[in-house]
Amino acid sequence: MALGNKGGSNVLCLRLQRQLLLVVVTLFLFFNAALTQDEENDGPYRGKYLGKLNSYHHQVSGDVYAVNEYTFLIVGFNYDGNGADTFFWSGASNRPGPQGFIVPDEYGKTNILDRYHNKDFTLTLPDRKKITEIKWLAVYDLNSQNNFGDVYIPEEFEPPMPQLGGTFSKRSHNVSSSSIEILDSKTIRIKDFTYDGRGKRTFFWAGVGAQPSSRGSKLPDERGYLDPIRKYNKETVELELPGDKTIFDIDWISVYDVADNENYGHVLINDGLNVPPSLVKVTKFEFSLPNCRQLHKDMQVSWEVFGPQITFQLSGQVAANDYMSFGISGSDVSSQMIGSDVVVAYMDEIRGYTVDYNITSLAPCVQVLGQNKGVCRDDVVGGLDSFQLNTYSRKDGINTISFRRTLKSSDDGDKEIFLDRSNYVVWAFGQLDSNNEPAFHTYYPKSDIVIDFNTTEAVNDCFDFTKSVDTPPPQLWERTRITDATVRTFNAYLGPSGGLRGYQGLTGHVSSGLAWYINGYMIPELYLKRGLTYTFKVRGGNNPHSPEHYHPLVITDDPQGGYDRLSDAKQSEIRVLAGVEFTRRGRPKPTAAGPLCLSRYPPSYDRRLDDNFPTFKKFNRSLITECVDEAPALLEITPNITWPDTVYYNSFTHGNMGWKIHIVDSYSNLRSGAKALSWSLCIILLPWLVLQY
Question: Residue 19: what pLDDT?
Fold first, then answer.
């Protein structure tokens, strides 16, 4: 009887042990899954988490993610570098072994691996192999055939890929689209997007919840602006979520009018999207003053009022030689550049600068009847520089410059900053010219910007700076060369300089906003023969009272132009070949100032869209040409043997408007060169042609 009881107790004990073991295993799996989920959700979204590298030898460790069909991201990778013949290795066998292939390292090389310490990088499978075609990724030594560490690809694994979403609902203002594409965790492409542009204060708007509401926030448009959006007609628009926000942080994207709290159309974002992580670099940035306003994706202003003074901080993700500008509008009822009082802030390799400017015309500072007009420094027009520089720094591609001024300046040319009402402001950023003066701004708002500098609670709508990785520059418009020996007359008139595809891209110089058009082309390169006479019919404006549209044509050996704006010392270094005569006092006087003929934008056109034109021909067709009905000024030249091989046509008053003239001894050399190029192309293409036929 006792033996039977003992046997029953043993059976019961075994059952309890099994149940306890089952509980322990279940808890282990639960906590392991939770730990894996925490690893996956810790920090920024990096893709689909595959797991930790199993470590066998040589201190191999790290976390592995799938970025897309072809690419791994390895975070915190470690390896002591002591393997003899060690590579990243992958294959389709059940476990790592000699049957596999080398995966190039983060630099695309297949070199033996060196030491790694807590490094993050991506690996791309070679020959367009896909992650779904392999079973593991390893750190493998081919010499000893030892596996130092590995991670396995789960069966039926689905790598992150761009996902299709819904279409914008058609509610009002003609809002519509094709299916949106969620390209990665921060980028949404909207195809065939349409909106009539007639809303009051309408933005791309994103937020959480079942339906769009006023509790959302602005999305920068496709050019990074936070202004009310323009009219669109079946256009492809790519939006980038601002700061550290990702697609997993929003439930919808709307075309939303904040003035009337009305949703014109929206699209819902699905949960759990398996999309690639964004390659956009997010730079954390903390402003030092209590109030901050995001002016553009790449620029923000912060401020603090203390007694009769106000301190500003401008922060911008700009090139090292770019300027940032901010100030009080020239109008009390709108944001207007003309008449505005602004600071131009920039840095050189040594220090930062804040310079007080007065804007009387949208042109570089020039003398008109003895007075300086245009974008001029206050100390040049008889005023005072009212800004006191505090601090400056450049870090991670971001310029940060702080300064102060009094709310009401003693300089009559300065605008008062009001605390009892809102202030209309203006801003811009762009490149400096060779004299460290602001050139035509690359980025600037088209809508009214209103700021209340005296708020009871701190104002802050700023977000972290973001920058796309390896964004290709826009393709330039076609270069034009006039080499026809029979062309002896050139019609020269003015037109807009275009965006990055136009003057700036073609010459590598900053732009003043206008450029010379010769025989219908923007800044063509001219080829003139020594000993022949050529005539320029000049229509660049002959009213010296106009700071914007007075452009006598000159020819010099200086590529920049703007001869009249240069100091006496700089003028003495330049050889003037045509278009200028000198008075008895040695002062330069232009001789080729003709009536104004100007190709201009149509009414309500936004010149910030210039780069949307794929060719100059299409851009030129969009312009309206208006010419004063007067005879042009004539500039005759006969290049001789003393002329340099390369000279430049430009404006007497403004810099960076013209381009090259090549002085040749014979046109036959050009034709010979063209024939030689044609024969070279034939020789290069001959093997391909043989293979084709």
Answer: 57
